[in-house]
Design a protein that fits this description.
Distance between the termini: 10 Å
Shape: elongated
Strand content: 25-35%
Oligomer: single chain
Helix content: under 10%
Length: 78
């Protein structure tokens, strides 16, 4: 569950060049100012995108559809 005002996970989204299939590559890095948030889950358009991302860790560069807008959520897993 999202805890508004408490969850301050900072995300660094890195966009690679667009591929022929209109995809971009994105990487999420858990760098929260609140070190009590040990692990987070990242959701893209209501679907789990990355699970159990620990503090100071990053996901791999993962492809996402670049042709539409996206809704991102970061949820505290603690």
């Amino acid at each position: 569950m999202i805890r508004p005002g408490i969850l301050t996970a900072a995300a660094l989204l890195l966009f690679a060049q667009l591929l022929r299939a209109q995809q971009a590559k994105i990487q999420f890095i858990h760098n929260s100012a609140d070190t009590s948030i040990h692990e987070v889950a990242v959701w893209l358009n209501g679907v789990l995108w990355a699970d159990s991302v620990a503090y100071h860790e990053a996901t791999a560069m993962l492809p996402v559809d670049a042709s539409d807008s996206s809704y991102w959520e970061v949820r505290n897993e603690d």
